């Protein structure tokens, strides 16, 4: 039963209600929520609700149908956000808990912690007391391990989550840990649950190997019902099924089920859930996509030598990759994972353009990002035509050698690719489509070359700009400009350069059988390049128009042109100015606009604009990406 309180209830009224609950032989637990606050009546089954209904400050008395009350959404409709210092679990941010299965020794743990903190992980995991299936396996370092975890917290600022296995160790573990973990094997150790409630530290409650969601929520209720600890985090870690291909079956169904039934935050552990290193990343991404508030990941600097759970532990490089993927996927489901601070807005993703079976010209070697964009637009089966320069891509299209060309025009980190804007004015072609591609850069070298041996980097100026933060960490490297990312990989291979590396896509590394020294070196994972498709003939339809024009040199001239779009209710999506070659201090304005477009609207807009411009060219009307 729950007693729903009137908003703004007086303290004396609340105390009288709590006293009445005690008199009835039950315990009152106050649950304060954003939408409403309630007093839950815990313990006695035969309480008559009528005795509370008339008390001052009571809005309503309700029976709760569930065997768990305090954990239920009925009692508290709004999400519980568990705060551990400056880290929140259950809010907009996704949390990542990472660390080794067990604390093995000081050096290994501190090294792991330093690297995880540098990657942006906020909660460090690691078992000091280990529940091992075999009594002969490593049982953990005990209190010594807890001290090492506390030392790691001191030096990195990360919070610490670690398992407590026995009720008489709760006080000890709580002295060192920020979050107490109750392991799967102990989910129904009721004495342990009650003891954990006493210390008032957040509890991470793992799902038992064969526990139903309802049993799990009742275990959480044991902690909540004491009225002393409301900070429970649920952790799905896989259940025992008939399947043997994986260590457990990660029940991602539990995530939406729990979010519907309980206000408590839900974290997913794909490491124990799969037991296999290569399955951890996809299932972690799936967990966040399913709505998990965080993930718990096992990792190790040298997994093959781990004392426990090596086969499911990620290397630290793999943790870095996972974090970047999570950071990119979180906004798709309305969440965030902040590994650093500022973010450019994420563009919408929708492929859409012309289709064709003939070769598509692109600048660079096979494996270039432009080729990837061409595949994204035209499909994997498209024939592509590698071309040395942007100008030659235009020439191939104008001459009819290739019906289409694909060209980068702007990047979210590096800015506009101006040369292509200029070439769009010079050549008689039309933009017929566009796409946006996420660009992940790798540092690529010959097999056997180690990072310490690298002295020279071959990089496209755009790629170097996108990886500026990484390159700054290596001030001794000389950066050599090239205009072909994949081509520079090929060149390093052909020349057998032992001290050189290139910045290009991982596809380029695979294509030329080269080694990836580091993946994901772009300064921000939200790194997108917009590519356009050009052709000789205009596209038949679209919802986006690109134009370029020049205005007379008099006050208000640019304003007059912009007014045309405003009056017609057209949405201006881009305005960029470029100097006109041979006419110092005169500029061209490149404009993109969107709206309900048909030939008549475009023609009328162009007619209006002509009155206020000295030069105007329609670059294309095409479907927006
Ligand atoms: C752990 O996280 O270290 C662990 C032992 O997990 P589980 O209790 O889920 O098996
Ligand atoms: Mn483990």
Return the structural class.
alpha/beta
Supply the number of helical segments: 20
Assembly state (oligomeric): single chain
- Kindly report the spatial arrangement of strands forming the biggest sheet: 7-8-9-10-11-12-13-14
Query: What is the CA-CA span between the terminal residues?
Result: 53 Å
Taking the sheet with the most strands, its summary is: 8 strands, parallel, barrel
Query: If you compute it from the alpha carbons, what radius of gyration comes out, rounded to the nearest whole angstrom?
Result: 31 Å
- Fraction of residues in helix: 25-40%
Count of β-strands: 29
Query: What fraction strand?
Result: 15-25%
Short description:
31% of the residues lie in helices and 25% in strands. The chain is α/β, with parallel strands linked by helices and 625 residues long.
């Amino acid at each position: 039963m729950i007693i729903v309180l009137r908003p703004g209830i007086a303290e004396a009224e609340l105390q009288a209600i709590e006293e009445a609950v005690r008199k009835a032989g039950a315990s009152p637990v106050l649950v304060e929520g954003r939408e409403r606050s309630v007093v839950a009546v815990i313990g006695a089954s035969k309480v008559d609700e009528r005795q509370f209904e008339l008390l001052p400050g009571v809005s309503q008395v309700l029976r709760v149908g569930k065997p768990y009350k305090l954990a239920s959404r009925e009692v508290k409709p709004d999400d519980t956000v568990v705060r551990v210092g400056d880290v929140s679990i259950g809010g907009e941010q996704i949390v990542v808990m990472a660390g080794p299965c067990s604390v093995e020794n000081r050096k290994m743990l501190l090294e792991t912690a330093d690297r995880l903190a540098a990657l942006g992980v906020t909660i460090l995991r690691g078992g000091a007391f280990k529940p091992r299936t075999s009594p002969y396996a490593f049982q953990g370092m005990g209190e010594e391990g807890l001290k090492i975890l506390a030392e790691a917290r001191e030096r990195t600022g990360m919070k610490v989550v670690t398992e407590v296995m026995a009720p008489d160790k709760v006080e000890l573990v709580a002295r060192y840990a920020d979050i107490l973990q109750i392991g799967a094997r102990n989910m129904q150790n009721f004495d342990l649950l009650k003891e954990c409630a006493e210390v008032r530290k957040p509890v991470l409650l793992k799902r038992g190997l064969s526990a139903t969601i309802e049993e799990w929520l009742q275990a959480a209720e044991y902690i909540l019902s004491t009225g002393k600890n409301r900070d429970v985090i649920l952790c799905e870690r896989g259940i025992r099924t008939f399947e043997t291909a994986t260590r457990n079956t990660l029940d991602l169904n539990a995530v939406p089920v729990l979010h519907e039934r309980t206000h408590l935050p839900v974290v997913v552990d794909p490491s124990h859930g799969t037991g296999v290193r290569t399955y951890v990343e996809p299932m972690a991404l799936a967990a966040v996509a399913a709505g998990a508030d965080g993930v718990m990941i096992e990792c190790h600097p040298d997994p093959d030598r781990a004392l426990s759970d090596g086969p499911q532990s990620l290397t630290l490089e793999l943790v870095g990759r996972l974090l970047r993927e999570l950071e990119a996927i979180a906004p798709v489901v309305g969440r965030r994972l902040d590994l650093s601070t500022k973010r450019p807005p994420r563009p919408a993703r929708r492929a859409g353009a012309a289709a064709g079976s003939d070769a598509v010209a692109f600048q660079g070697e096979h494996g270039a990002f432009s080729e990837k964009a061409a595949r994204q637009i035209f499909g994997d089966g498209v024939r592509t035509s590698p071309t040395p320069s942007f100008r030659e891509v235009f020439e191939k299209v104008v001459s009819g050698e290739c019906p289409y060309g694909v060209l980068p025009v702007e990047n979210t980190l590096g800015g506009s690719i101006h040369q292509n804007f200029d070439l769009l004015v010079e050549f008689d072609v039309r933009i017929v489509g566009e796409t946006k591609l996420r660009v992940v850069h790798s540092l690529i070298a010959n097999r056997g070359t180690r990072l310490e041996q690298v002295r020279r980097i071959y990089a496209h100026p755009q790629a170097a700009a996108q990886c500026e933060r990484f390159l700054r960490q290596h001030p001794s490297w000389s950066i050599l400009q090239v205009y072909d990312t994949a081509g520079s990989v090929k060149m390093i291979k052909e020349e057998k350069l032992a001290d050189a590396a290139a910045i290009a896509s991982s596809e380029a590394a695979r294509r030329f059988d080269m080694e990836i020294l580091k993946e994901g070196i772009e300064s921000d994972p939200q790194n997108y390049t917009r590519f356009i498709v050009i052709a000789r003939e205009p596209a038949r339809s679209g919802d986006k128009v690109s134009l370029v024009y020049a205005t007379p040199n008099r006050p208000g001239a640019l304003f007059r042109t912009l007014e045309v779009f405003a009056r017609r209710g057209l949405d201006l999506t881009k305005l960029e100015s470029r100097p006109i070659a041979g006419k110092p201090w005169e500029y061209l304005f490149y404009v993109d606009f969107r709206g309900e477009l048909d030939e008549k609207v475009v023609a009328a807009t162009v007619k209006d604009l002509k009155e206020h411009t000295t030069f105007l060219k329609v670059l294309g009307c095409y479907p927006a990406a």
